[in-house]
Design goal:
By secondary structure, the chain is α+β, with helices and mostly antiparallel strands. Among the domains are: about 245-350, Flavocytochrome C3, Chain A, domain 1 (Alpha-Beta Complex), CATH 3.90.700; about 435-565, Methane Monooxygenase Hydroxylase, Chain G, domain 1. The protein has helices at about 20-30, 70-80, 85-105, 140-150, 220-230, 255-260, 285-295, 310-325, 330-335, 390-410, 420-435, 445-460, 465-480, 490-515, 535-540; strands at about 5-15, 35-40, 55-60, 120, 130-135, 155, 160-165, 170-180, 185-195, 235, 245, 265, 305, 345-350, 365, 380, 540-545, 550-555. The strands form 4 sheets. Strands 1, 2, 6, 7, 8, 9 and 16 form a 7-stranded mixed β-sheet that branches. The chain has a 4-stranded antiparallel β-sheet with strand order 15-10-17-18, covered by helices on one side. Strand 17 and strand 18 form a beta hairpin. The longest helix is centred in the last third of the chain and has 26 residues, at about 490-515. The protein is globular and about 65 Å long.
């Protein structure tokens, strides 16, 4: 590691260069502000959850029918989220959807079907209208990245932010290092946006390969962990998400399957989804995943995907769509000798992620207000690390909202930024150096594997008080071993910090899960010892914050916005 520090002063620091982070940077750049983006990936145009492409985009378009208006969708949000939702923030996101959609089109993103020249809109995941646009978004992220680069943002690739700088409940920058060059950065900023995605690699999956993740495996809860350590408020951390994937190949694509008409059948050939939801395969993702889990538990596995009833034009569209997110999927099927057009395809349950709990507009992570600002002043969050999420559209919209909020907050700040405590920064660098010099026996892989096993055994999709307490004991014991973790090189050092963040997020998830004594939204939070949904006592947010001796939990009624629990004043959007 390099001994000298690179110090940077900027207006806005963005942590994460995916859709949410890039969209947050754009309004700041348009306002003429200086923006620094720190991103762990190699190329801005292809980093984040949809770096290689996306096939669906959720939006209200205001085309005329009542169902295609923000107010119509907003009325359905409480039911869609089982009433655990920050309605104020979700409403802001939905109302902004048409504006941000048109802005994305102005970047050159073509949402229209190449055959018909019109938008190909579909209904899925329990939504009350055909809000999903099916399109070829192979270059979606690239076009957003180009917009950021044209705005002349300073982009630090292969750079991981380890700690936020905050004083008197106000953020003013971060400490980061480049895990290729060993360069360390002390960055001061008048506003900070956390957009580092959800928490993956947190439980075991069917293949046993941690990086074979249905969602982006390099999103390891960095934003959640940094926010928590700095005193920010988190909510919904008990709510997890899983999906259905082809057996042996984790990938996105469930949206395409259900919206284009695929069926799920058990070993008896029974189309079972209608036993669990009147909408069948068009139920919410959480319900679909829980139904498949239950079929296995009932002895009705394996579960298969059935597309044999679909017409050829729909099968052609499905085949094209499925290779947008994972362009190697057709090769996988070919090598396995599987033809989904003519035969059943076995599917399995994915690993868990702390993300969106299988429903739209309810995220798990940093609590934000209607401007995307967290409980810490000048610290914003967007995308799958925030408490309002909606897939790629949610990341784009809330990212842009957070960017606009950071512009307002930056313009209100006066005077010099606080000086960085370089002695504390040097201590952090020394702690990292210790991992490179450590003679400890535990590697980052071993810490992650132990965390994943603990989550799978005790926290997973069926929870009990006893299991959750065992999980917390085990995760606490693992935390004691973290100072002696061994890293072989700078890349391994980055993995060490990821592994620490994964373990911490597992602890926060188990803590919140233990607190919520009910079952809600199927497998996103199922307590076997409290199997029913308790509307009278648990229509509440579970809030997790840093206490003097670990995570501290409290609750807040969903009748109030999460921002009502903030210790700072909240601006009106």
């Amino acid at each position: 590691m390099q001994e000298n520090w690179t110090t940077i002063d900027t207006d806005v620091l963005v942590v994460g260069g995916g859709v949410a982070g890039s969209m947050a940077a754009i309004p700041a750049l348009e306002a003429g502000l200086k923006v620094v983006i720190c991103e762990k990936g190699k190329v801005l145009d292809h980093c984040g959850s949809i770096g290689c492409g996306v096939d669906h985009y959720l939006t209200v378009m205001d085309t005329g029918p009542e169902w295609d208006t923000p107010e119509f969708l907003i009325r359905h949000v409480p039911e869609l989220t089982d009433y655990i939702v920050d309605t104020a923030v979700a409403s802001r996101v939905i109302r902004e959807m048409p504006r941000i959609f048109r802005k994305l089109e102005s970047f050159g993103i073509d949402f229209k079907d190449r055959e018909t020249g019109d938008y190909y809109r579909l209904r899925s995941f329990g939504l009350p209208g055909t809000y999903h646009i099916n399109f070829d978004g192979t270059d979606f992220k690239k076009q957003i990245g180009e917009r950021v680069r044209k705005g002349k943002a300073t982009v630090l690739m292969r750079t991981m932010v380890l700690q936020l700088l905050a004083r008197d409940n106000r953020a003013y920058g971060g400490i980061a290092f480049n895990f290729r060059t060993g360069e360390w950065y002390a960055i001061r900023a008048r506003a900070v946006v956390l957009a580092a995605g959800d928490v993956n690699r947190i439980s075991k999956n069917a293949s046993g390969l941690a990086f074979d993740s249905w969602h982006f495996p390099y999103d390891t809860g960095d934003a959640h962990a940094m926010g928590y350590r700095s005193g920010a408020m988190l909510a919904n951390m008990e709510s997890v998400e899983a999906t259905l994937t082809p057996k042996g190949f984790s990938c996105q694509g469930l949206n395409a399957l259900v919206s284009l008409g695929a069926y799920f059948v058990n070993r008896r050939g029974e189309r079972f989804m209608f036993k669990y939801d009147r909408k069948g395969e068009n139920a919410r993702r959480a319900v679909i995943a829980d139904a498949a889990i239950n079929e296995y538990l009932l002895g009705n596995g394996p579960v298969h995907l059935d597309c044999r009833h679909l017409p050829q034009d729909m099968l052609d569209r499905m085949e094209h769509t499925l290779q947008v997110d994972r362009y190697t999927l057709p090769a996988f099927y070919k090598q396995k000798g599987v033809n989904f057009r003519e035969e059943l395809v076995e599917i399995s349950i994915s690993e868990l992620s702390i993300r969106r709990s299988g429903v739209y507009f309810r995220g798990s992570g940093l609590a934000v207000d209607v401007n995307g600002e967290t409980s810490i002043e000048a610290l914003f969050a967007a995308g799958d690390c925030a408490t309002v999420s909606g897939g790629i559209a949610g990341a784009a919209v809330l990212g842009h909202i957070a960017g606009e909020g950071s512009v307002r907050r930056m313009r209100e700040s006066h005077g010099a930024l606080p000086a960085i405590d370089m002695a504390a920064a040097a201590a952090m660098r020394a702690e990292s150096a210790n991992h490179l010099e450590s003679a400890g026996s535990m590697s980052w892989k071993e810490l992650e594997d132990a965390t994943r096993q603990t989550v799978t055994d005790y926290v997973g999709v069926r929870r009990t008080d006893k299991g959750l307490r065992l999980a917390l004991d085990t995760l606490g014991a693992l935390a004691q071993r973290e100072p002696a973790l061994k890293a072989d090189d700078l890349h391994g050092l980055m993995r060490v910090h990821e592994a620490k963040n994964i373990r911490l997020n597992a602890e926060l998830m188990a803590t919140a899960s233990l607190a919520r004594r009910e079952t809600r939204t199927g497998s996103s939070h199922m307590r076997l010892d409290y199997p029913k949904t308790d509307e009278q006592n648990w229509r509440k947010f579970v809030i997790v914050e840093r206490g003097s001796d670990g995570p501290r939990v409290r609750t807040l009624s969903t009748d109030r916005p999460l921002a009502d629990a903030f210790a700072r004043s909240v601006q009106t959007a």
